[in-house]
Amino acid sequence: MYFFDKNEAFKNKVFLIDEDGRTYTYGQVWQIGDTITAGIPDRSLCLLLTGNDVSSVSAYMALLRKSCPVILMGKKADQEVIRRMKESYRPAFVIAEGACEDQKEEPAEMYSKLGLLLSTSGSTGAQKLVRLSRDNLQANCDSITEYLGLTEKERPITTLPMEYTYGLSVIHSHAAVGASIILTDRTFFDPKFWELVEKYEATSLAGVPYSYEMLHRLRIERMDLPRLRTLTQAGGHLKTELQESIGTWAKETGRRLFVMYGQTEATARMSYIPPDRCLEKIGSIGIPVPGGRIELLGTDGEVITEPGVNGELIYYGDNVSLGYATCREDLAKGDDNGGRLETGDIAYRDEEGYFYISGRKKRFIKLYGKRISLDQIQDELQEAFDTADIVCTGDDENGVFVWKTDQAAGADRDALEQIFWDRWGIREDKMQLRMIDQIPRNASGKTIYKDLTEEKEDGVQKE
Amino acid sequence: MAMTNLEKYDYAFMSNFRASKEELPSLKYEGLGKWDSVSHMDLIADLESAFDIQMDTKDVLDLSNYEKGKEVLAKYGVSFDE
Question: Which of these, A130, A350, A353, B20, has the minimum number of CB atoms within 10 Å of its CB?
Answer without folding.
Answer: B20
